[in-house]
Design brief:
- 51% of the residues lie in helices and 8% in strands.
- The chain is an alpha+beta fold.
- It has a 4-stranded mixed sheet with strand order 2-1-3-4, covered by helices on one side.
- Helix 1 runs parallel beside helix 2, helix 3 runs antiparallel to helix 4 and helix 3 packs parallel to helix 5.
- The radius of gyration is 17 Å and the shape is globular.
- The model has no long low-confidence stretch (mean pLDDT 96).
- The structure holds glutathione (GSH).
Length: 207
């Protein structure tokens, strides 16, 4: 069984969707924000960040994109990645790494701005720049998306739930999606998948 170290509206969402897609046996281990040191979570991830996963053999992995790829590799019957060495797989790698480096990163600057400056008076300026960088990074995704509905067209893969997760971390997801209609279609299509519907309310409770 996998143990997914989890918190609401965090990078645990994409790996969780992929575990659901794969029909994998997993448990959530809920990590309370601010309690990482007290609960021993730093022994799991010394950076204190979510997500982490304990694999069925007891190995710990961190880094959401690496976890996503590993889940896909471990459950080939779920077809969450195109064939090894294919051009399509190369595109998934490309945009997954792009997403971590250019989108996830802007979320950290936006929501944890004070960590990105030694001058507390500059935190607002860090935030403003993060908003601009995030919007620009999503524009490049929009330009990349074709007829869809997924990044690879008809073929669903690990990059799609990852983009959905990131789009919903935007401060104004509906405005982001209105400006980026292909991304909107991708997000709406991914949201309709049963695996996503099963876990969505854990991250975004209604009411
Ligand atoms: N590169 C890491 C980033 C993980 C990350 O920053 N997670 C956020 C939640 S979405 C977090 O735990 N932030 C709290 C902290 O950094 O202390 C990944 O992709 O897994």
């Amino acid at each position: 069984m996998y143990q997914l170290y989890w918190a609401q509206e965090t990078g645990a969402m994409a790996p969780q969707i992929l575990l659901e897609e794969a029909g994998a046996d997993y448990q959530r281990v809920i990590v309370e924000a601010g309690m990482e040191e007290k609960t021993g979570y730093l022994a799991i991830n010394p950076r204190g960040q979510i997500p982490a996963i304990m694999l069925p053999d007891g190995t710990i992995m961190t880094e959401s994109a690496a976890i996503a790829l590993h889940i896909a590799d471990s459950h080939p019957e779920s077809k969450l990645l195109p064939a090894t060495g294919s051009t399509e797989r190369a595109q998934v790698y490309r945009w997954l790494f792009y997403a971590v480096a250019n989108l996830y990163e802007t979320d950290l600057r936006l929501y944890d701005s004070e960590r990105f400056t030694t001058n507390p008076d500059c935190a607002d300026s860090v935030k403003r720049q993060a908003r601009k960088d995030m919007d620009r990074a999503f524009e490049l995704i929009e330009q990349q998306l074709g007829d869809g509905p997924y990044l690879l067209g008809e073929q669903y893969s690990v990059i799609d739930p990852y983009l959905l997760m990131l789009a919903y971390w935007h401060e104004q997801p509906s405005e982001l999606l209105a400006r980026n209609p292909r991304l909107k279609r991708l997000c709406e299509t991914v949201q309709q998948r049963p695996a996503v519907q099963r876990i969505w309310s854990q991250h975004y409770p209604v009411g």
